[in-house]
Amino acid sequence: MSIRTRLILTHISVILITLTIVAVGLIVILRTYQRDIQLARLGDAVVPLAFQARAMLQNDVPPKEIMMRLEQQATGVGNVIVINEKGLVLADAAYGLTNRNIGVAALQKPGAQRGFVWGVFQQNNLNRNLLYVAVASGQLNGQNVYVGLAARERGLLTVLGDIGMNLLVAGVITLIVSLVAALLLARSIARPITRLTQATEAIARGQYEHRVDTKGSDEIGRLAESFNSMAEQVQRSRQMEKDFVADVSHELKTPLTSIQGFSQAIVDGAVQDLASARRAAQTIFDEAGRMAALVADLLTLARLESKQMSLAQDQVNLTELLPGWIERLRPRANNCGETLSMEINPLPAIIGDAGKLEQVVVNLVENAIKYNRPEGTVTVVAKTQAIDNTGKNPLITRRRNASVPAQQWIRISVQDTGEGIAAEELPRLFNRFYRGDKARVAGGTGLGLSIAKEIVEAHGGTITVTSEVNRGSSFTINLPVR
Ligand code: ADP
Q1: Looking at the predicted structure, is the pLDDT value of residue 125 above 70?
Q2: How high is the pLDDT of residue 398?
């Protein structure tokens, strides 16, 4: 069943239920009101009859005779009855009540005159109540005699009959209005859903650039918005996949071309002497080495990203390990005429993979040496720092909520005094294959920082960079202590 049909059916049933409740409510309310109107009408009509009856009673006309004489004038309103002060029927024109006691009560409605009485009683052969109003008209055998008019009480459905037409008109109007409203509502819901469905199908067909226009802040608008952001992510990750394949092919092509060229030269006999042959072989060896390094990096990255590579969960004591890792790079720094200094404060042990963390630190220090200026300095500082989980100042947070312990972090920063990195380059630094101009010449793979990021994040940490052009860069790793 479509949304439209469902909405229309809901509207119709709500309206029908409302109309029924209104009708029942009106009947209940109007029932007492109806009786009052009927009593008033009988009361008005009985007054002239009572006048005539008074004269007849004075002339000793018997009740039955009075009833028959007056009955003619009562047609249309009710039937004449004559009762005594106890409620005993002395004469009755239509209902066969003679000699029955039908009860009597003073009419106490506002505006009723003295001497009026009324009553309501059930008659067995009628399924409705009888209602009467009578007026004291004289005396007979020492008892007060009342002459009255009786009529059947109007039933429930007659009340409905009076208002039924109006109710029906109101119902039809409401139904039409609400059907129009339901149609409009259904359209406003169904249209965007249809558009969303079409967009989903388009994306499934591979048209990743497809979007839905988002209008309004209602649920559908929000759905369209999240659909669009999902589509954007799909598009982006598809693009990244494509770029990745293109990048890898491109990266492999350069060393392969070089290997092909040199080996071709050897095969063609273009390399005559041993020294040239050795140079060609050396180049082939270097290029193959570059390819091997690239492939190894790619493999590491792919495994880290797909979470296939399981990190060791060892106790890692960085206070002991860091100096060794860094010292091994001192010769390289010295070769470049650079100074390597470190400040390793006592650090708590963390759980993690020492080999992988070594890779990260070594990569950062190697970069710092590689991209430094001649005779520059590389400084490694390691210390602990308390940062709460929200990254706010722990002293303030702790005072506010003593039960949240501040998280202990190990912070390792590697600082150089090199050329620095332009601000617009910074966001791309950790992307795969990102290389600065200088690195392209130096022959880096551009995967080192992506791998470092993956490893640090797999340890629950973060890696950030700040840099100032011509002053130097600072890479910082934050590792949580658990
Ligand atoms: P690679 O060093 O193999 O090129 P990385 O992923 O380690 O790849 O680094 C990516 C790029 O980031 C480098 O090519 C370089 O341009 C830039 N970079 C990294 N470290 C530094 C640094 N300390 N100073 C300046 N630039 C840097």
Answers
A1: no
A2: 46
**210 in ligand 1 pocket by Cβ < 6 Å?**
no
The share of the chain scoring above pLDDT 70, in percent, equals: 90
Q: Is 472 in the pocket of ligand 1 (CB under 6 A)?
A: no
Q: Whose CA is nearest to atom 16 of ligand 1?
A: 436
Q: Is the CB of 429 under 6 A from ligand 1?
A: yes
Domains and CATH numbers, the chain: 3-157 (3.30.450.20), 219-305 (1.10.287.130), 314-480 (3.30.565.10)
The CB of 367 under 6 Å from ligand 1? The reply is yes
User: Which range (89-93, 121-125, 418-422) has the least confidence?
Assistant: 121-125
Report CA(438)–ligand 1 centroid distance (Å): 9
pLDDT in tens, 358-416: 999 999 999 999 999 999 999 999 999 886 555 555 444 444 555 556 678 999 999 99
Residue 251 CB less than 6 A away from ligand 1: no
Distance CA 149, CA 264 (A): 132
